[in-house]
Write a structure and sequence with these properties.
Blueprint lengths: L2 H7 L8 E3 L9 E14 L5 E13 L9 H15 L6 E6 L3 E8 L4 E5 L7 H4 L29
Parallel strand pairs: 1-6, 3-4
Antiparallel strand pairs: 2-3, 4-5, 5-6
Pfam families: DUF6428 (PF20001)
InterPro entries: DUF6428
């Protein structure tokens, strides 16, 4: 989800709720402790120089169990970040700590923002020697008996 999308959604909500893909909710007393832009410059394993930019939201749970972040407050935090930091309309990456700091993509299911698990990938599979995935076939589509195959008891095997 891009920053512009969350800005369109927030005014229609009464509450800001984040949910993990497994259905678990981020505790409702969470804080958004950071909104910023992260630029990552790197070289992939094929030697190609790459650059990525994301808007970063960091969620944090404190012991103030009565805290509730309202949509208007989050919009104000976003606007302040845009004004002061010049952040761009990029994809949002959310940092949230469970066992360790996790990085998630962001989606919306019509009611809640969903933290979508991110995965790693090779960006240069052709240069890395990663074999392409083999074509999958259903066993039911394969012929059970081939013309040149041996039959039980024929003595050809």
């Amino acid at each position: 989800m891009k920053l512009s999308t969350i800005k369109e959604i927030l005014p229609s909500l009464e509450n800001v709720e984040f949910q993990l893909e497994n259905g678990t909710f981020v505790p409702e007393h969470f804080h958004v402790t950071e909104v910023g832009q992260i630029t990552k410059n790197f070289i992939d394993c094929g030697g190609v120089i790459r650059s990525e930019k994301v808007v970063n939201f960091q969620l944090w749970n404190a012991d103030d169990f009565e805290h509730r972040l309202k949509p208007a407050k989050l919009l104000n935090i976003i606007k302040l970040s845009e004004d002061k930091l010049g952040i761009e309309d990029a994809e949002i990456e959310v940092e949230y700590q469970s066992g360790t700091i996790g990085k998630y993509d962001l989606d919306f299911n019509g009611k809640n923002f969903v933290l979508v698990n991110k995965t790693t990938a090779c960006l240069a599979q052709d240069a890395c020697g990663i074999p392409f995935e083999k074509e999958k076939k259903n066993l039911s589509e394969l012929s059970a008996v081939k013309e040149n195959s041996c039959k039980p008891g024929s003595g050809c095997c």
